[in-house]
Amino acid sequence: MEFKISKELIQQLEQLIQTKNDQQLEVLLNDMHHADFAEILEEIDIDEATYIFKVLDSEKTAEILLELEDDLRENILKRLSAKEIAEELDELDTNDAADIIGELSKEKKAEVISELQDVEHAKDIVDLLRYPEDTAGGIMHKELVKVNENWNVLTCVKEMRIQAENISRVHSIYVVDDEDRLKGRLSLKDLLTTSTRTAISDVYISKLNSVTVDTEDVEVARIMQKYDLEAIPVVDELGRLVGRITIDDIIDVIKDEADKDYQLAAGITNDIETNDSVYELTKARLPWLLIGMVIEIIASFVLKGNEAVFEKYSTLIIFVPLLSATAGNIGVQASAIVVQGLANGTLKTYSRDYFSKELTVSMISGFIISMFLLVYHSVMYQQYMVGFAISISIVVVILFAATLGTLVPLFLHKNKIDPAIATGPFITTTNDVFGIMIYFAVAKLILGF
Amino acid sequence: MEFKISKELIQQLEQLIQTKNDQQLEVLLNDMHHADFAEILEEIDIDEATYIFKVLDSEKTAEILLELEDDLRENILKRLSAKEIAEELDELDTNDAADIIGELSKEKKAEVISELQDVEHAKDIVDLLRYPEDTAGGIMHKELVKVNENWNVLTCVKEMRIQAENISRVHSIYVVDDEDRLKGRLSLKDLLTTSTRTAISDVYISKLNSVTVDTEDVEVARIMQKYDLEAIPVVDELGRLVGRITIDDIIDVIKDEADKDYQLAAGITNDIETNDSVYELTKARLPWLLIGMVIEIIASFVLKGNEAVFEKYSTLIIFVPLLSATAGNIGVQASAIVVQGLANGTLKTYSRDYFSKELTVSMISGFIISMFLLVYHSVMYQQYMVGFAISISIVVVILFAATLGTLVPLFLHKNKIDPAIATGPFITTTNDVFGIMIYFAVAKLILGF
């Protein structure tokens, strides 16, 4: 059932383009899903790929443009004229068109907008461009079916048929008053099962979730997931229905959010991908490396200050990497669990129960690890007191790392900072510094300096 | 618009339960969304919460049961009789009911199934229990609207109205032949705009994505996202339509997948949450800590073997944490980008272009970091050759870590192992060991041992 890209298909496409066999190209295009066709375009020459958009019917190619990887699309758009781009955009949903326009340079943006043929559509697109990307306004589209509360079911079905022409998925029919203010909704199923003369005002459901244009996209995602919604209407400050967000728009938000947490944990600031430029990749990564470096320079001071200790007990120093790694691992585990708990709502704020559970887990892990080390060190180096000192300090360091790992993300969250930062290089390197300090302090205490 | 949980509401609910005011409870329940009601139940006593399910109409409470956090639901289910549970399940969609049954003990499972009233529904649920959780069969539900290819539009609409009674979202109408084999689909919109006497076989669309019961859930998610589907039919080995997966089922798969990557990166094996037990939390975390410990013991050997070197050049040892952290950070960054690239398809296999880009980024970062260190070390310690040795080795270590970070996830992916493991403790600690080896080897080379 599933499409598989093949060398033959790529060659066939290339040949058709080279021989400018537009008719056969159109046939090939019709046979394929636009997402599959986009995949093949990734494999061929950029000028050949551009040819498809220059020559074939925009009604067919617009969706393909949408499915391309960002950098290929960018390159193709550069090769198309403003008029050619406008033709593609005329075929797309308002929010998809607005997204593509958002990728263009300032001058080309204005040119493309002026070339749009469908005036209503163009107005909607320009309207969408006003909203920040990470708000309900930025992810909504203008396509929706709305009916007036004063109509009856018959008028409603007629109107709906007209409006639904341009909409791939109806989901809900929204009910508005004469001022376009959102009053409620009707389901398609209700329409199918109600007599045609019934007044809309008698059948619509007035209980309805909605968001305003400036609601944050992650909040929209949260609401839609909590209430299991497939679409949510968006209203402006006056309560007027201005757009709709569907679940497929939200999947991207959910994925981006998860990706962002993952990237922050890995010490990457911006949303980057494998096909970004060296400059962008470096810009997203270098700051965390430098922060890590600066913090670890502090660690070098701590070690320098303890030189006399490890000159006397040389095995202390050789376990520093083990200590750092263990502290780092425990700390990241602790904060990752808190970050996910905050994200999915199982943890809302500091909880004494949870904190003592975390300390119990760390205590058990610390005890097991320190027992291993005590035995290992005693067998290998026969310095029992040093082994004892190492074991005790590793327990203390583990408890400290677990505490930091639990409390820092909660503290950040309380202060409206993304807690995911607490799973990244900043916290692991800070853990290193404190860990080494504690290690030598405990060791000195036990070995008597 | 949005629901806010309040102390008053909790107290009101507690009071109604304590006074057994079932009528008012029902009113309160009707006024609220089940997801909101579930949130309040999290805040009250477990026996009080159980009362709701024992006394109130299952038609109302079943959805609430579904929305509860896993551990609260588990506790409530323990307090309910098999008959009481069966009453709730009779009200739920087949896959939701099957999920809840899956959480029960073996004996209770059988008891509950025997108590189910709706025989058809019970058969469907039992059928779903056969499939592994992470397959299309495990996440599909039985609720769908299907029509026979030999009907006409009028019969179809009539049948649909009957079938749609039990289905919250219709999405697509599936067309089957007399043997129940999937032939194609009809959209609600098509039905609304086609004359009633038209034969279904004339209007249905035969091009249609479907999956088989044993397709992996992540693969279903990929297909649905790629083709932007809101529902996909599931067929058995003989091509017979057996169920349907909707986009809200898939959101959970997408989130779980992202969570899993994040947890693997943080060194957590199982899918755990803040409210899991100490035992479960320890079981998910300790193995990685022990693996890290064992690998870092190797690091201690490497340091022990180089004791003579850092006794002569003492500043070498104090930069070991800096070196480890930088190698670790670079390695995790590199592998996180690859893991995400593999997940979202921008990277499919080893790419020479991408690898040389990664090396360029690391080279630039390494150069900047080593320059800082060279200057810093020269100013602080005035041992120019040692500073030079540290700077050179850090560049070599960074390049090595970037190489390992890029190639290991690609290698794992090629061998069908989850590449996300390569962002966790295993790779960071391995990086430590190699990093320290390279560090001292390069230093020895430059300082002439």
TrEMBL record, chains A, B:
Bilayer disposition of the protein: Multi-pass membrane protein
Transmembrane feature ranges: 286-303, 315-339, 359-376, 388-412, 424-447
Compartment(s) of residence: Cell membrane; Membrane
Subunit structure: Homodimer.
Name the record gives this protein: Magnesium transporter MgtE
Molecular function (Gene Ontology), one example: metal ion binding
InterPro entries, A to Z: CBS_dom (IPR000644), CBS_dom_sf (IPR046342), Mg_transptr_MgtE_intracell_dom (IPR006668), MgtE_N_sf (IPR038076), MgtE_transporter (IPR006669), SLC41_membr_dom (IPR006667), SLC41_membr_dom_sf (IPR036739)
